Amino acid sequence: MSTSPSPAVRSPINLAGKLALIHEHWAPRVVAEMNDYQFKLVKFHGDFVWHTHEDTDETFIVIHGQLRIELRDGPVILNAGELFVVPKGVEHKPCADQEVQVMLIEPRGVLNTGDQGGERTATNDLWI
Ligand code: NI
């Protein structure tokens, strides 16, 4: 893990290989950037906290397992190969009854806990 991109910029990034390096839940790791956006891999298990990102949408792509994103008007269930964009300003809570592997796409600097902060806020810009 590092705080900067790999120098091997011309190599493909193997998502399964990167996911195998992640041993914590709720700890996103950056694998690539595109302009000001980051592609992050993360493993979820259990319930997160309700939160909102006032300034940005947030994309979830499920790679393995099933993710439930609770919204105030009902849940969105995502299976492997499915994608959902949480619009900015929409309160949400990711939940996973069993471990799920997810890619997040969001602008650099977005906090995982959004407006809520607190002990579940992950450190940003940690690359694998
Ligand atoms: Ni969020």
Structure explained in plain terms:
The protein is mainly beta. It has a domain at 36-117: Jelly Rolls, CATH 2.60.120.10. Helices cover 4% and strands 44% of the residues. It has one helix and seven strands, in the order αβββββββ. The protein has one helix at residues 15-19, and strands spanning 29-34, 37-47, 58-64, 66-71, 74-79, 83-86, 92-107. Strands 1, 2, 3, 4, 5, 6 and 7 form a seven-stranded antiparallel β-sheet that branches. The longest helix has 5 residues, at 15-19. It is globular and about 45 Å long. The termini are close together. The structure holds nickel (II) ion. Nickel (II) ion binds next to loops.
Give the SSE map:
Blueprint (H helix, E strand, L loop, with lengths): L14 H5 L9 E6 L2 E11 L10 E7 L1 E6 L2 E6 L3 E4 L5 E16 L21
Antiparallel strand pairs: 1-2, 2-7, 3-6, 3-7, 4-5, 4-7
Compute the CA-based radius of gyration. Answer: 14 Å
CATH class value of the domain at 36-117: Mainly Beta
CATH architectural type of the domain at 36-117:
Sandwich
Query: Helix count?
Result: 1
Shape: globular
Class computed from helices, strands and strand pairing: mainly beta
N→C terminal distance: 5 Å
Order of helices and strands: HEEEEEEE
Number of strands: 7
Provide mean pLDDT, rounded: 94
- CATH fold assignment of the domain at 36-117: Jelly Rolls
Low-confidence stretches: none
The share of residues in extended strands comes to 35-45%
State the share of residues found in helices, binned by percent.
under 10%
CATH homologous superfamily classification of the domain at 36-117? Jelly Rolls
The ligands found in this model are:
nickel (II) ion
